[in-house]
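Data availability (excerpt). All sequences and predicted token strings are deposited with the supplementary files. A representative entry, DUF790 family protein, is shown inline so that the format can be inspected without opening the archive.
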Amino acid sequence: MLTADMVRAFRRGDELRLRALKPADRERATEMAATYIELTRACVGATRGEFDQALGAVPVSARDRKLAIGLRKLIADRCDFEVEEDCDPVALRQRVFSRAAELRRSLGEGERFERDAVLAEVAAERELDAATLERLLYVDLRSAHRLLGFRALSAEELMRVYELSQAQAVLLRAVRVRARVWNRDPGIYRALFHKLKFLRLLYRLEALPEGDGDGEGEESGGYLLDIDGPYSLFRSVTKYGLELALLLPAIQACEQWTIEAEVMWGKQRMPLSFAIAGKAERRRKRRGAAGKPKAGGKKRGAEGTASEPAAAEASAAEAPAESAAESQAEGEREALRPPDDVAALVARFAERDTPWRPRYASDILDLPGVGLCIPDLVFEHRDTGECVYFEVLGFWSREAVWRRVELVEAGLPHRILFAVSSRLRVSEAVLGDELPGALYVYKGVMSARAIEQRLARGAV
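Structure token line:
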């Protein structure tokens, strides 16, 4: 991913805009990308210093300097460099230098110091050959790391990654992000919402009214994602910013999308607005058993009932090439992967003798006029069929907890248990016993036993 200082952007009034590549500039940039890719392939086995020197030797004009730095950064991100874990280079250097000093002091008049003899002697002590010892002496230095592999891509693919990374780098400085998305394919919504949960971002989700999109397809009503940016936090700014940036590909996979962000830009942290929009390339779609949640397909807070999500039909488009389809399928599988802590909790419940069994949730809990909630799990009682929703709120901010408290207090009729990290310093008592929701505050790892106890005693 690019850093903010690598972004080719300019200010126009109170807006921050990315500097688009003109056709001639893009052609030149693609040629530059191809050169860097071929040089990187040739550098496999060389040191990082040699790799940096090879790419840095490519002639670049002053106006393309920032572009070149960005392309080289993205290529380096796809490289695997050697990390020696079984040696202590500091100790090796100390032994070599001390032995060299001893030999120098013992030299007689006219005798010459033999560097290779010192290396051979110390290498024999370590049961190494001299060449290996010499390589390990400075393996802790970045420039000495050896390039072991390169996840190659085409020049055109690198340019697409570059354009995505520019927008991602801007979002690293965001205070607030508002994304509107529209889809006829329910699978894209599922992937987006799962990614949102996986990254543990602070968000508010609202359904957009029907007809709010571009009018294409049977359903043009979409969703509004109102996401807190990293610069709205007091801690973990960098980590949270990276998580937010990782959501962008899932948004751009939507058939139609817009993003409006408030960012703090430059060394002076100037408040600016940033906006981008687009449409995904049409893909072959099929009618599925689960559709885009809509008015009759959500868990509606007003009625407290559920119905099967409606299936959505989309027009067929030309099928993508096999490699692209495989890449897309792999991306969707990754997007649907549950957060590690949730998956670990499910595994711990599977080992317990309990009537409560978790399954991954697919419902969206909606309280009209207040907001929507996307649970992580549904716990179902084996004998009674009773269900309790479960959502992990992460550890970024206490604000996420208060939003859920307000949702429950406003009348959300579904039983739900919210898991909250003790780092947020929130009491379980903020939700009273008379309400259908409850808090479970945990330290470190979520306890299956503690959650089962709350489910069994009807704490939610």
